[in-house]
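Exercise 7. Predict the joint structure of the components listed below.
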Amino acid sequence: MTVVALAGGVGAARMLTGLSAAVPDPSSITAVVNTGDDLVLHGLHISPDLDTVTYTLAGAISRSQGWGLEGETWNAMAALDRYGGESWFRLGDKDLATQLYRTQRLRAEGATLSQVTAEIARAWDVGVQLLPMSDDRVATRVTLAAGDGPDEEVSFQHYFVALRHDVAVRSVRFDGVESAKPAPGVLDAVAAADRIVICPSNPIVSIGPVLAVPGMADAVRSRRDDVVAVSPIVKGAALKGPADRLLAELGHEPSVVGVARLYAPYAATLVIDEADAALAAAVEQESVRAVVAPTIMSGPAEAKALGDVVLSV
Amino acid sequence: MTVVALAGGVGAARMLTGLSAAVPDPSSITAVVNTGDDLVLHGLHISPDLDTVTYTLAGAISRSQGWGLEGETWNAMAALDRYGGESWFRLGDKDLATQLYRTQRLRAEGATLSQVTAEIARAWDVGVQLLPMSDDRVATRVTLAAGDGPDEEVSFQHYFVALRHDVAVRSVRFDGVESAKPAPGVLDAVAAADRIVICPSNPIVSIGPVLAVPGMADAVRSRRDDVVAVSPIVKGAALKGPADRLLAELGHEPSVVGVARLYAPYAATLVIDEADAALAAAVEQESVRAVVAPTIMSGPAEAKALGDVVLSV
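Solution:
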């Protein structure tokens, strides 16, 4: 069975470990990862979602943080404080090496993001095939719903990290997406997969950019019957991050029903948590089959169990 | 007394500590530092000579290495090895912060190298005014005297670090220098200084680029009577680095006499080491006054003593 997973960061990374454990060969899984929250800082090309997925699949992610590397040191960041440098985006010393390598390959050696992503995954012995959604630059931009003043548009990471996503949002756009192409292999993988999984990631800012790459929405829609989405919303709340507030701020219902409505054009099936079992009927009114299962991946066993559900429904 | 010092890396850094100790106010000293060996690696703008001078004047330089920071850690470099990344140019974790800050200021915030250099110096409480020789990119390129094959041109750092300057050199050029301008304040400082010091740095690849910036050679020549050079060659050998071999390979005599010949258009006076006292007459035959003094700066006292000599002759 071949699987394509549309992926954001932490939730997707856990889903991918579960899917990996649920198949005989992880290389039958291709993850198409959001790069809309990539940023250039200190001259470095940083790909937070790709790194979170890679480090998680490698078993090297910091468990306490959910991002970055276990056993990390922070000497560069601490030294940056001497200069009053931009230390709001935390890069551990070992994590920095990933950014140094990616940047050197992209800028000096003419590699594509796809190539570097594969090299980094191989170095970490990750079996899942990792693809960026695009080799072209797409930048998720967030317009804050500031009180009186003019709208303020900031980068996704500024919103997410510097402002700790603790501000209301008026709109989201994906700068550059119109001229972006899916990374090599993405459309073929979507066309050929036995199962397409929309991971429990933020629908707006993690899955949204992936589907916004020209060609992707059509490709996924045409496979709708084989597409299974997993709701990132449980009992009206995001397990992590601002998905619930973002949905509400942008006019969507922050519930599994709202998620069903968003994903209805793409997915025939939505896996919702047992805690939302009472909403199964409402989900199905959106023309999406509801599958009720435990979706909270608190450990490898729970992640594998969810992987089994997603692949067997 | 105002002083301008033309500076490369280690030898210049020590000379500057000596000059600082020899004047009432270090801010009366302006160092014009070689940036021909700057490099872009991992997307970062690295300025090795500026950093060596800054760290040395801050008392933060690694004594054992002569470059980089004391008490440094190497976690990023070690992690880079996982990817087979470019780890030949060693950047400690704290030193990386300097490169991150410089790059962010230059690339994202539109600062000039002069501005960033001043900010970094201020952060380290360096009293000496540090100026890059130019805000424009000048890249020292080295053509290797390869055996049979075609000449191979490499970057200075490739020659100096990756090849450990253990190969013969056919020629040296300063790419981009024709269109470079002296950094703001450089020419004014040279014109106004009571004393101009050519530090004991490599005449070819450290002082050479500084004098090659258009306007600099004329500016220094016009102050010849007030220019004192310190020979980086003692008893026919460089204290550190390849200056002796480079001089010989490029057709110069690797001795204080060869240095006198090179600097004769610029400097009325050359300080040579006591070990070379017998060559004083030969130096003066090059129309350069020879001052014999201990020039080996093994510690702060020796550096200050040499500073006193340079300022008093």
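Discussion. Chain A has 13 helices and 14 strands.
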